[in-house]
Structure formats: structure tokens, C-alpha cells
Amino acid sequence: MIDNRKYDVIVIGAGPSGVSSAINCAKKGLKVLIVDLNSNTGGQIYRAPPKTYKNVSKKLEENEIQKNLSDEIKKYKIETAYNHTVWQVSPGFKVNAFNDTSTIEWQSKSLIIATGTYEKIIPFEGWTIPGIIGLAACTVILKAHHFIPSKKIILAGNGPLLMLVAYYIIKFGGKIDAIVDTSSKIDWIKSTLSLMTNPKNFRDGIKWVFKILLNRIPIYSNSTIEKAIEVDRGIKVILRNLKTGKTKNIISETIAIGHGLIPSTDITRLLRADHIYDEQKGGWIAKVDRFLRSSVSGVYLAGDGAGISGALAASDKGLLASSALLFDKKIITRNEFDHDTHKILKKLDKYDIFAKAISKLNSTPKKLIENIENGTVICRCEDITKAEILRAVDQGARDINQIKSWTRLGMGPCQGRTCQYSTSKIVAEYLNCEIDDLGYLAGRSPIRPVPLDRVLGNFDYEKITKVEAAPL
């Protein structure tokens, strides 16, 4: 129960990085609040099953890790605000959120932002039809709810998430019609030495691949989905080999596709922190120092929101960011700070080798951008096509915010989280410029749609103050 709205530290995000940073601060006697829109700790990678699921037949490793995170939060008596969506963060710092019934405002001296990532999908013709979902969305269905989206499915995109989703679909009794991977077999072989620097993830990967091969699932390497069409029996996809140009048609019930992850920068953009573009780390990220301090005093980043490096690194990044906060607040000495961070930095440097290998496997082939037809919808919220974007560019729009103003791209509920990356890639290719030159979408409040009934409160219509019409 939250009975005081002022805190020493507010941690936004209850994934592994948010939990580790919250615990580190709580151990030093700080009053900490951790906020998350989910019903419990875990974030996306260790997402908790609904509380109504009492007897789950298939226990997953991720579910056990999530339970441990939740137990740790309780152990250190950290206040929590689950099922709360943060829609505004103001300098100072004020954090505004809403839940199922109302809104709330908290105040804090410092912020640790651990909001993770969201998935990246490069558009193609037909990608918005029913039955096509993201790979990351598929992991939520599998990990949190323990069921498969349909009996027959095609997995497409790139990176280890393809193999992870395939493993769980097989585990839960689904049938995979094909795995369509933009990477080649040679790309995977080249990455092996780097992937071995993270033994646990490497062993997991071997286990996933062995399961896939054992079930004789067709794998189309160096290939992508060129087009998807609704048919009577489900969805027909046209696959194209990126090297030879050869095509193949396959019919399935569901398509799960994803081309990697993008760091969440909603709050740092809202606070006008400095950002840099780093393709290897996922795209636009808040600029941070070695200890994850942002350019805004009192704001620290943790986890993949500070650049994608994976779940195992997330907890250490939380410790690093919180240690910087404790040192800046003079709660720990320089010697304690150096001692606490030395080992963490060495581990993160090792994880970075693994992250670079994953980044290469998750890279966006140029041909994926070239494959996007002019009539393809890029912004799903506002139904904006590639042709409309390029028309704005032809008329003089030279940065992403101008394109937004002239087309309404990024003005829908997702506020550009889905379309900014693809738009930047398309325009950079068209103008033969760098993505840095196009900038990033300015942060705007609310960063999530706020239901009006949460804001307005309860009142009788008769009690509304009526304002006379202004004179002309």
C-alpha cells in the first residue's frame, strides 16, 4: 500500500535491471518506489503469468527467475506500484501514472529509468493483416500465458529470438511450417566465437537449435517475407531469398516476425536528455557516461534502455546505475564506489562482446528496406504509406519531426515506437544521408494514451462550471 508520494528514488521498470537497482538503493536506506505497467516484476524477458494461473502445467525457467525477483523486492520492503502506466515525467522529478481506476503523481529526488525495449519490425506488403504478430509479442503469449497463438505458424525475421520462440512453440505442441531468417548460415557460424563468451546463453542457443533440427523444421536462411496475403486457409506468404531472388509460397495460420529490438527512449526524450544514434546498440539511445548517468542530473539509465546487451547484463547495469546514484548522493565513498563498480564493468565489457555478435545477427539488411513498396503502410496508427513519406521529403522535409508534422506519422497511440526506425532507414536511403542527420522524434506528453475517465474524476453534470461564450 502506497501512503506517501515522495521518494528518494523512483525506479521505472520492474525487469531485472530495475529490480537490481531498486534493491541496491534500498540496502543503503533510501526510500524506493518501483513502478511497472505489468502485474508483477520480470519485465518482458521474465514476464509473470497472471495471478489467476494457480496451477501451471509447464514451468519455465523464466517464470522461476521472475518469482525470485518478486521475492527479493518483498525481502527489502520496496514499495511497488504494479499495473501503473507512466504517462508523464516532469523535471524535478514528478512522475504521473494511471491504473485501472485513477491517476496518481509521485515526487522523487532521483530517477532510474529501466524501461527496456520494444520490438522492431521492418514493414512489408500485408504486414498489417490479422494473424501477423511480432516475435516479442509471441514470447509474451508463450511465457506469460503458456499457450501458442495457433496450431500452425511461420517464424520470420532474425536473431536468437527466432530460435527461442521456435523452441517454446515446439515445447507447447505447436507446428512450425517454416523459419525464415534474414541471416545466412555463414553469419551464424562467424558469430560462434563471440557468442561463446556468454556460456549460459550459448548453451541455451545450442539447446534451441538441437530441438529445431530434431523436429525437422524447414529453415530458409538469407531470406525474408516479401508479401503476405489473406486466403481461405489462413495467410499465404511469399518468401524471397535475399541472395538469389528466388521466391517460394507457403500457407500458414499465423506469422510471427521480428527484426530485433529498439531501446525505449520515451522518458529520456521527454526530459530532453541528449541522445546519440548507435545502430549496434539498437538505434537512438540516451547518451550516458561509463556509469550510466544521463545528461540530465539525477537521471540514470539501466538495462537495455541504455543500449541493448541482453538479459544477463541487465541486472549488472542496474547495479552500476544505482551505484553511480549512491556515490553522487554521497551515500557511498569513492573507495566503495570504485570497489563496487570495478567487477561490474569487467563483466559488462565481456557481455558487450556477446551483444555485438547478437547485433550483427539482428542487423537490418539493406534489401529489407529496398523491398518496401511505395504503397506499403509504414505508420500503422495513422495509416501513412512509404509514398506519403517520400512525398513529404520531396517537398522539403529534412528531419523526422518535419516528416511527422507534414504527414501525421508518429502521431498515433504508439507515438512512433513502431514506425520511426523504418521511416529513418527509408529516408536516409532515399536522401543518401546518415540517420543522425534526420534526428529523432521529440518527446511529447502523454507518452502513453491516458483514458479520460481516469483524469476527469467523479462529478455531477449539474455541478460543472459553465463558462459564457467569449465575445467575438
What does this molecule look like?
It is a single chain. This protein has helices spanning 16-27, 61-75, 135-145, 160-171, 185-190, 192-195, 199-214, 266-270, 311-328, 334-361, 366-370, 386-394, 400-407, 420-431, 435-438, 452-456, and strands at residues 6-12, 32-35, 79-81, 85-90, 94-98, 103-113, 117-119, 132-134, 152-157, 175-181, 219-220, 223-231, 234-241, 247-252, 254-258, 261-263, 275-278, 283-286, 299-301, 377-379, 384-385. With 472 residues, it is an alpha/beta fold. The strands form six sheets. Strands 1, 2, 3, 4, 5, 6 and 19 form a seven-stranded mixed beta sheet that branches. Helix 12 (386-394) crosses helix 14 (420-431). The chain starts with 5 loop residues before the first strand and ends in a 16-residue tail after the last helix. The model has no long low-confidence stretch (mean pLDDT 90).
Task: Give a nutshell description of this structure.
The protein is an alpha/beta fold.
Instruction: Provide a count of the helices.
Output: 16
The average pLDDT is: 90
The shape, in one word, is: globular
Main sheet attributes: strand count, strand direction, barrel closure? 7 strands, mixed
Q: From the alpha-carbon coordinates, what is the Rg to the nearest angstrom?
A: 23 Å
Beta-strand percent range: 15-25%
User: How many beta-strand segments?
Assistant: 21
Derived from helix and strand composition plus strand pairing, the structural class reads alpha/beta
Percent in helix: 25-40%
Uncertain segments are: none
Task: Give the termini separation.
Answer: 52 Å
